[in-house]
Amino acid sequence: MVAAIKNSVPYITFRRYNKAFRRLVKLPRYLGSEYRCPVCGVGLRTFKPMWKSYGRDVERFGYIHRNAESETFNLKAMTCPKCDATDRERLMAIYLDKVWPTLGAKDRIRLIDFAPAYPLSLKIKRYPSIDYRSADLGRADVQDHIDLTDISYPDESADIFICSHIFEHIPDDRKAMRELLRILKPDGFGLVLVPLVVGVDETTEELGHSTLEYRWKHFGMGDHVRHYGKRDFLRRLTESGFAIEQLGIDYFGREPFRLHGIAENSVLYVVRPAA
User: Fold this and answer.
1) Helix (H, G, I), strand (E, B) or coil at 205
2) How far apart are CA 89 and CA 115, in angstroms?
3) Taking a C-beta distance cutoff of 8 angstroms, is the pair 178, 241 a contact?
4) pLDDT at residue 6 greater than cutoff 70
């Protein structure tokens, strides 16, 4: 009963506005001109760091990569004090701002946002010619309830999809990748991100059911079913039929990364149907 209430749209909306109000009260201490959030546009003196509870859990469960460098994970500048956009959402925002004007020849651009991040979704909905759809397996605050391994959309029905930090939750991630390829138009693209640790190339994943403690220790979060290695992650996408662009600081520029609070090792994976 409690879980159903917490997953209801009224409750989600209440919590969202309650958190937004509390951020607004505290916002003046963060305002400035040193940084800027590309999602909401606010000028900032600083971004907010990663919440302390994450660090406590990492130490508590003994996450094996807790002292290693993670890709696209800015612990010191994790969220925007105004809109709560994370660094990976800010990275996707500056990419979409960069490429959207080049898509103007299309009458409507259908973008599917899987497990949508609320701050980024608000920004995306303001793009011209956008036909936006939000999708998730269990959340009540989305337009479509979708199992990523069995997507109900027709073939070649999406111009763009966003799939950020989802694959690590899905036992059959390769099937989900193939489904995303199926719904993507031949000239479309997807934005894909998963947690990655710098220098780790091979994936480790649970075999059968594992405990919360095991998943935290080996995968870095209690609801993850694997820990991707970069080389293997790229191989899985390629074997599923995608061509991959790895866009980092050389593509975006050092100053945009600094301005928007994005770590210099950040990489956005842009996938397209392979020729």
Assistant:
1) strand
2) 12
3) yes
4) no
Dig out the tokens for 60 from the structure.
């508590």
Q: Residues 149, 173: contact at Cβ < 8 Å? A: no
Beta-sheet strands, E only, within 48-141: 70-71, 109-114, 130-136
For the record, the structure tokens of 88 come out as 């990976």
Residue 155 near residue 182, CB atoms below 8 Å: yes
**Tokens at residue 61, please?**
């469960």
Does residue 105 surpass a pLDDT of 80?
A: no
Helix segments in 129-271, DSSP class H: 173-183, 212-219, 230-239, 249-252, 254-259
Q: What is the pLDDT of residue 5?
A: 62
Own/partner pairs, 63-70, CB within 8 angstroms, 24+ separation: 63/216, 63/217, 63/220, 64/217, 64/218, 65/197, 65/200, 65/220, 65/227, 68/197, 68/198, 68/199, 68/200, 69/197, 69/198, 69/199, 69/265, 70/195, 70/196, 70/197, 70/198
CB within 8 Å of 69: residues ≥ 6 apart: 197, 198, 199, 265
Mapped onto helix, strand or coil, the DSSP state of residue 247 is strand
Average pLDDT over residues 230-253: 98
In whole angstroms, give the CA distance from residue 132 to residue 111. 5
Distance CA 77, CA 205 (A): 29
Structural domains of the chain sorted by starting position, each given as residue range(s) with its CATH number in brackets: 3-273 (3.40.50.150)
pLDDT, position 208: 81
Residues ≥6 apart with Cβ < 8 Å to 127: 96, 100, 109
* 90/266 Cα distance (integer angstroms): 11
